Structures are given as structure tokens and as C-alpha cells.
Amino acid sequence: MPAAAPAAPRSRVVVLLSGAGTLCAALLVATDDAGYPAEVVAVGADRPDAAGLATARARGIDTFVTPLRDHPDRAAWDRALAAELSARRPDWVVSAGFMKLLGPAVLDAFGGRVLNTHPALLPAFPGAHAVRDALAAGVATTGATVHLVDAGLDTGPVVAQRVVPVLPGDDEARLHERIKTVERELLVHTLADLVTQVPADTTHDRPQESTR
């Protein structure tokens, strides 16, 4: 009987968050399935009190914090964040409720491999108040988007979207909660699709060459 083929290496993912980390939690649950093609190897935040860090730590996952206030300017913070990310050797970086724009140091290091989720159907309603803006505009539908990150504000190429209807009587909290449910599912499925199309870098698993 022929030996079973070795399992493909799982893609290494670092998640960035700023708050409760419900999107990150959804990814962590997905990775409990051995067949899921990615693993979260670290979770980073820009705030030490971000609740999502505790969820990661409870699972024994590496965490780090890079506060903007600890650096003389935004460029220095961006370089420090790029260094923290590079140290974890990710195949993909997922910005999951991370409330800071990523700068050139991060994007130069991981360009084309940084995903973000957004609670609207981009290019409609970019920015931090997408749900409020959709309600103010009186649209009948909004939704969730997963896109690649570029230097703009929610301007990177759209990878996947899903529609969420605006229901009579919706306020910002109610609509946002329904969008977040869809957003979590969309992120889990989209990341799996992407990492399957772009296999993990198996050099992460090779012994490091001696520099002596």
C-alpha cells in the first residue's frame, strides 16, 4: 500500500487587531480544523489593552504590541511594526479590526500579502464609519469586503464581497452586528481560498543555515 502523501504546509498568518478581536477569534476557531490551510502564528496590536490579545494568549499564541505613542513619528512606528511582523515570518498578514493605516515599511515587506476586512461594499463607504455612513445614505443594501491593502484608505483590490440588506428599523449597532457575522465568515473562507492558490513558503520549515 503506497504511503500517504505528506500534508501541505499550512500558511503562516499574523493577525493585527486593535480591539475585541472577534474576526481574529473566528480565524482561530477555523484553524482548529487540521484541514484548514492556514495557521495563526502570532497576533499583534497597537494597544496593550486590546481584548483580542487575551484570546490569543489563552491559546498559547505569540503576541506583540507596537503602540504608536512609543515611537517619535508614524514612520518610525511603521518600521517597528514591519520588524515585528518580519520576525514572525508570515506568509500573510491579516488586518482584522486594526485601526491604523499601514505604511510603506510594512507594505514594502508584505505587499500583496496583507488582507483587510471592511464593513461595507467597497468602494462605497470607506473609512472608520462605514456602517453609519451607509445608514445616512439610505442605501437598501450594504455588506462586507475583504481586500488587499495598499497605501490608500480602503482602496486596495477587492478579493471578495458579500451583501447584507439594510432592514427597516436598523440602527448602527444592529446593522453592524449583522455585517460582522458575515464579515467573519467571509474572512475565513477568503483566506483559505487565497492561501490555497498561493502555497505557503516551505523555507519557513527549513533549518536555518549557520552563519559561522
From TrEMBL:
Limits of the Formyl transferase N-terminal domain: 12-190
Site (Raises pKa of active site His): 154
Pathway(s) per entry: Purine metabolism; IMP biosynthesis via de novo pathway; N(2)-formyl-N(1)-(5-phospho-D-ribosyl)glycinamide from N(1)-(5-phospho-D-ribosyl)glycinamide (10-formyl THF route): step 1/1
GO cellular component: cytosol
Domain of life assignment: Bacteria
Signal peptide: 1-25
UniProt catalytic activity: N(1)-(5-phospho-beta-D-ribosyl)glycinamide + (6R)-10-formyltetrahydrofolate = N(2)-formyl-N(1)-(5-phospho-beta-D-ribosyl)glycinamide + (6S)-5,6,7,8-tetrahydrofolate + H(+)
InterPro entries xref list: Formyl_transf_N, Formyl_transf_N_sf, GART, GART_AS
EC number, UniProt record: 2.1.2.2
Leading EC class: transferase
UniProt-annotated catalytic positions: 118
Entry keywords, A to Z: Purine biosynthesis, Signal, Transferase
GO molecular function, one term: phosphoribosylglycinamide formyltransferase activity
Protein's job: Catalyzes the transfer of a formyl group from 10-formyltetrahydrofolate to 5-phospho-ribosyl-glycinamide (GAR), producing 5-phospho-ribosyl-N-formylglycinamide (FGAR) and tetrahydrofolate.
Protein name: Phosphoribosylglycinamide formyltransferase
Record organism: Modestobacter muralis
Gene field: purN
